[in-house]
Amino acid sequence: MDNYLALFTLAGSILALLFALTRAKNVLSFGEGNDTMKKISGNIRKGAMAYLTRQYRILIVFFAAMFVILSVMAGFGLLTWFVPFAFVTGGFFSGLSGFIGMSIATRANARTANACQEGLNRGLRVAFSAGSVMGFTVVGLGLLDISIWYLLLRMVFHLELPDITAAMLTFGMGASSMALFARVGGGIYTKAADVGADLVGKVEAGIPEDDPRNPAVIADNVGDNVGDVAGMGADLYESYVSSIISSCSLGVIAFTAIGSGKLAISAVAVPMVMAAIGVLASIICSFFVRTGESTDQSTLLKALRRGTNSSAIMIAIAAFPLVYFIFGMNYIGFYFAIISGLLAGVLIGFFTEYFTSDTYRPTRKLASQSETGSATIIIGGVSLGMLSTVAPIIIIAICVMAAYGVSGGFGDANLGLYGISLAAVGMLSTLGITLATDAYGPIADNAGGIAEMAGLDPEVRRRTDALDSLGNTTAATGKGFAIGSAALTALALIASYVQKIQQIDMKIKLDMTIMNPVVLIGIFIGACLPFIFAALTMDSVGKAAQSIVKEVRRQFKEIPGLMEGKADADYTRCVDLCTKASLREMILPTILAIVTPIVVGLILGHNGVIGMLAGATATGFLLAIFMANAGGAWDNAKKYIESGVHGGKGSDAHKAAVVGDTVGDPFKDTSGPSINILIKLLSMVSIVFAGLVVNFHIF
Amino acid sequence: MDNYLALFTLAGSILALLFALTRAKNVLSFGEGNDTMKKISGNIRKGAMAYLTRQYRILIVFFAAMFVILSVMAGFGLLTWFVPFAFVTGGFFSGLSGFIGMSIATRANARTANACQEGLNRGLRVAFSAGSVMGFTVVGLGLLDISIWYLLLRMVFHLELPDITAAMLTFGMGASSMALFARVGGGIYTKAADVGADLVGKVEAGIPEDDPRNPAVIADNVGDNVGDVAGMGADLYESYVSSIISSCSLGVIAFTAIGSGKLAISAVAVPMVMAAIGVLASIICSFFVRTGESTDQSTLLKALRRGTNSSAIMIAIAAFPLVYFIFGMNYIGFYFAIISGLLAGVLIGFFTEYFTSDTYRPTRKLASQSETGSATIIIGGVSLGMLSTVAPIIIIAICVMAAYGVSGGFGDANLGLYGISLAAVGMLSTLGITLATDAYGPIADNAGGIAEMAGLDPEVRRRTDALDSLGNTTAATGKGFAIGSAALTALALIASYVQKIQQIDMKIKLDMTIMNPVVLIGIFIGACLPFIFAALTMDSVGKAAQSIVKEVRRQFKEIPGLMEGKADADYTRCVDLCTKASLREMILPTILAIVTPIVVGLILGHNGVIGMLAGATATGFLLAIFMANAGGAWDNAKKYIESGVHGGKGSDAHKAAVVGDTVGDPFKDTSGPSINILIKLLSMVSIVFAGLVVNFHIF
Known about the structure:
The structure is a homodimer.
Chain A lengths: L1 H27 L6 H41 L6 H37 L1 H37 L4 H45 L11 H41 L3 H26 L10 H31 L5 H24 L4 H8 L5 H14 L2 H17 L6 H16 L2 H23 L4 H47 L12 H42 L12 H72 L9 H37 L1 H6 L4
Helix pairs in contact in A: 1-4, 1-7, 2-3, 2-6, 2-17, 3-4, 3-5, 3-6, 3-14, 3-15, 4-5, 4-6, 4-7, 4-14, 5-6, 5-16, 5-17, 5-18, 6-7, 6-13, 6-14, 6-15, 6-17, 6-18, 7-8, 7-13, 7-14, 8-9, 8-15, 9-12, 9-13, 9-15, 10-11, 10-17, 11-17, 11-18, 12-13, 13-15, 14-15, 15-17, ...
């Protein structure tokens, strides 16, 4: 039976990839506009590809080194021989997701701008189609990787189910490493270019955003693609795959423990088939996304929400018969676990929007704090961001308790942990379409830049702005899902780690009580990791931005006629600087994330590692929400002031709000999202190196 | 034997109080200067006293209500009858510490300014003497409370040792509540006045700091007293007392468990006698603090360091025979536990200084980030603050492991936990003198204000500035001790909570493993609490500051001749506004800190509470360090720029640094220090309400 289920998942994967292909063709069928637009878009594409090529060149070294290390460990019997290969495929597919998403995004930007010349709906269709390519490529490749490995291990190597899921769990580490590199590198790139361009262009020289005279303008647009598209693609590929494989693994262990091989297969089937059904629902509902010619935010938002909400409802309905047929009525609680995750995602998304959208009180109050200067709006934003952690914490707490309880966790803890992992799968089941609505934002942003640089009719810019601004709102919701699912998946991975330890040696006595000083210290060290990580990435943005600032200042001074528009800026120098700086800066934080759990394990042992993972998950979750929401609120407070309140554009209040926005940039687009990956990568590394840690540790 | 030890502690307490009295007399023997100075000082004193009077009026209602609640619980047998009374005395002495410290500080400010007219050394002596009054009052009253209760319960009520320490543990809750009210209220007051005065006075009207034309100038100086003196006094009283009583309690439990009543007495004796020895060492070494006429920072710092370092060395030497005579060679490990705490305190203090003093790289780099505007210095400061958590986390981790290990924790966990609590006692044993060096800062600050307002010779201001600036450095070290000891004490209190639960009912099976979802959720919720707390207190500062801004603007507009110096500002209105706003705003955060552990306990049960305490301690520690160091670094980066680098005073870089400093104000003086108290209060409340939670909870 299980092979058919895997084939079903494979079919879902192929369906998703085919749909992505049709969407890509659809995007390419639109015209790119005039020669200037083609040239600008070409420059952006060239810069983005140059970045990715160099990034991959570095990562090949990293992956090769890790392959050797893992092979040596496999040679010593600390790992199975599948792990090094699984590690590489995880990284490969994660990178490929980002690459494909970016390829189409850099081809869709000029096309979106061009389509906006004809009308808003046409623009939305191009951008949303391109976003869909990304969304469905991510889920398609994710399911492809999972189902191929499953079939390979099952049909070719004839492994037992627990060995299969244990091996598959490790390719998450490849995906997570890749994702972290992509997120951190891309995040540093995009914000360094953005902050650098703004500080000299907007603030010092007083020229508008996306002005072609600004030497950093192409780098800024490249940044949208390498950070917000390629980085996000790799990131969500990792989230998606991690949630499914950790769920499979926990399910198999839960039912193997109670001696039911048949139910163990069911436990693998549910998350896989859920994902395939999610693909189907997302495809259907993506056709509901269309709009008229009104640029009214609420109409546009309604169009997108129609797509995401209906797919959520469709999945909620379809999941019931799925669980019923696979597990029977005895385990129908798993259905409610899935629903609790789906619901928690929606609720966290709502609260993210509440705290960051200018239609609600918090962001409006923040905007008013700009009237007494930049200091008060900074204090206000930090306070808002910290306060916004309350609702998500409570939602996740209730979701975890509910998923654990309805799955029978109070009778058998293993079932409860499986339930928690199913909640994560439920939350991410609509990823195909939510990611599409998320990924289209940077495309619209790029389109606006091209419209500005190519000197198109201001009406076009107004349309792209409407699309872009909408993208900020959907991005906020998307972030809510990403953070929520990261927390649930991280919890599931901690459980997987615990079970991995017991798998290695049943005789190991785990002492995970908080009063064990090793656990306590682990919690402290783990809690500190997201702080270090955020500090390092912010510092990197600062460093990289400084180098851009200097270069832009130099060009303004040294290139005669640049400010008068008579000479061209040297865009490639800025693109080059950003590339070098971000690639250099991405290495330390990522290596740190990989090395720390190993070092902590070798010193404090597996109990210390468990404490570390719990501490990192808790503060990582909080810090990610704090940074994302503070950044989002500052951004929208600035936009709100630009709409004419508190003196509008150019007023002192506006200047104060720009400071807030600039501070928020690395918060929300570099450090915050990277932390989501960090907390999962820590668990993944711990799982892969568990054999080493169990055999060699000090305490 | 133990009664004699308690009497020895009582003697130490009386010695400390007598020494404080001689210091107070010494301060009062100096002249207050001319009539203007007397008048200004009188106004500050009046404002400060008005604030305290109203604060105490509110707190009497709170303490009365809590007394009734605790009495009702005692009536139902959920508590012993000593608890309500112990609660009230804890609060009373904590408040008294702040009151006495502030009374002398407000009498020493003009005297310091006046003494500075004659010379720097004379000024230092007045200010340091006044600081010593505070330092020795805190330790004296702390030891008085402890020894009186001990003697009362032992000699009058003839209680058994375990019952005595259990009852004494609960008066920590009174001290913690009082401390939190005082820290939060005072912290909001001082920063609202400071930020409000700066935003309108310095930034808008362009008049210098402490200019008598600024209507908020008196409020600003009152703030130094109610926040940095009274608040800090109540705070450190709580730290000191909590560390000693939690140590006594853990020691008694450890040795009662192995059936040795005699060693249990020794376990109580060590922390108490350690404290008394600390008093002696601090008194002796406070005479080493004297300087010549050079205003050179390093000379002044050396004078203060001579006092604190020699007292640390003296205690380190004296502790060895103490432990040897009381416990014998078998338990000499406890000596090393004490030393590990003492050393950890010194190291954390050093790293605090490293990250916040402009003699080191981090703050200098931060200052340079002001060159690209306020956004980059804010990002830089956040990054610096977050990164500065690494060293303290590692130091505390090593200290905990060391104290646990050398005390024999790996054989008997109870001994290890006692060892951790002894480390906290060791860290705070030099409190008498470290607090003196800490408390003299705001006095020097006030003296500078009076010198400015009274129009004294600029040389006087230069001298008070030298004293003040030194105060910032010692305050940084003091903060390191406060945070480090808070973390250790909080850990000891978690252990006390666990033992309290088992004391209530030996049959209760504790499931504190991290994989228990209740514990996990507890960790998440606990981790969130410091974020909420920081958000609320920052928001309060913002709100209160806004009301000051409006009032100052109004006075500038409506009082004719104010700006020309022909009319007097209405200082009392501002003082009044600050008082009202800060008292109103202090209530919610504090009540939240008291109610949350009870609610969490009633829902998640005692296992959830343990998780919550661990989570809160970990993130609380991190957030407190982050906020204190970011704030300190911004402050000193601004001062560094004012010394002439990056364009000096008035340059764009300086303006950017002022924004950083203003953001840092509530970070370092309101939210950060309050979090230290929060994490202990959460444990204290949990301990007191343990009986309720054990009997009634949902999960």
